[in-house]
């Protein structure tokens, strides 16, 4: 995994409605957890989603990919680690690692690795550039291993 400079980690507990009859997390819920991680990362960069929307900037998922490594189950603690992978004038890509935290006796267990790309839209649904302050903050979250254009 790349060593991106700014990462956030959010801890969640698997709720019953997020699981199927076997007590395993339904696959689509991992995308919701990515959204939680991404929202928190943007908040910590100083630009909450609610503020962006007031300014007429809407971030829509244009692409998502997930790789499932192991299942999460009802009542598990899970961590969602999020980082910025790529920033362009109108899009930003985030990477995610969803894992079950380890203990003193065990290492964390990788559950899902994922990536999403979001595109900036205006109120009418047309593409637009990311606001300069957000663009600068996102680029600042990258290292030389990330692609900033």
CATH class division:
Alpha Beta
Principal-axis shape equals elongated
Q: Determine Rg (CA atoms, Å).
A: 16 Å
Helical residue percent band: 10-25%
| Element-by-element helix/strand order | EHHEEEEHE
As residue ranges, the low-confidence spans are 144-149
Could you say what the CATH topology is called? Thiol Ester Dehydrase, Chain A
| Tally of helical runs | 3
Report the span from N to C terminus: 21 Å
Topology:
Blueprint: E1 7-13, H1 29-44, H2 49-54, E2 58-68, E3 77-87, E4 91-100, E5 109-121, H3 132-140, E6 147-148
Parallel strand pairs: 3-6
Antiparallel strand pairs: 1-3, 2-5, 3-4, 4-5
Provide structural commentary.
It is a single chain. By secondary structure, the chain is an alpha+beta fold. It has one domain (7-142): Hotdog Thioesterase (Thiol Ester Dehydrase, Chain A), CATH 3.10.129.10. It has 3 helices and 6 strands; from the N terminus they run E-H-H-E-E-E-E-H-E. The protein has helices at residues 29-44, 49-54, 132-140, and strands at residues 7-13, 58-68, 77-87, 91-100, 109-121, 147-148. Strands 1, 2, 3, 4, 5 and 6 form a 6-stranded mixed sheet that branches. The chain is elongated. Residues 144-149 have low confidence and may be disordered.
